[in-house]
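Reading a protein record of the kind used here takes little practice once its layout is understood. The reader may check this reading against the record printed directly beneath this paragraph.
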Amino acid sequence: MVRIYTKTGDDGTTGLLYGGRVPKWSPAIEANGAVDESQAALGVVRAEAEPGSELHELVTAIERDLWVLMAEVATEPRNRRKLVAGTTSVSEAMVASLEERIDGLMARVEMPAAFVVPGENRVSAQLDVARTVVRRAERLVAADPPAPESMVGTYLNRLSDLLWAMARWQDGEHRLTVHRPRRAARVPAGASAADGAPAGTGGAPAGTGDAGDDDENGGEA
């Protein structure tokens, strides 16, 4: 009988590719945990997609890429020389492929000019979930990158953009957007705030931006 438990992790450590052990709370493991979550979220999308469809094939390719990315993250710096681009480390070609996919969707799908309320349907909502988890993984990698030359962070950045575009593609023709609230009317001199708009109002909530912001719904240049 094959056992899936080894008991080696009972001390709070986990093994790395090509050897070495680190605490399960180490930056690399935290980052890979987030990538693992995003891959699982994409698995729900793949399960919902029609087998053989464009969406199914695209999500499957991304899931396979994430195994490559996790292999790189789970490698100690001293063992990076053993990595193989495109197999156990993120390659320029992998990033270029994501950019090509993004450009293709942007060219054929009308993208919104305002913030989108997630949840138009199950697939688009799940793609937004995956996007937010990828964003978390990107932040963790940015705080502790595998190596200066690593393209893991770049890949995750482009992937979050692609997932946003894919979610808007899967929204279909109808999507709910959030419009910036109108500025409150100026209160005439001598009038109290109670006579007009509440004092201190007059624009979008703090922390929001114009529809054209780079970080619109998680997208980033």
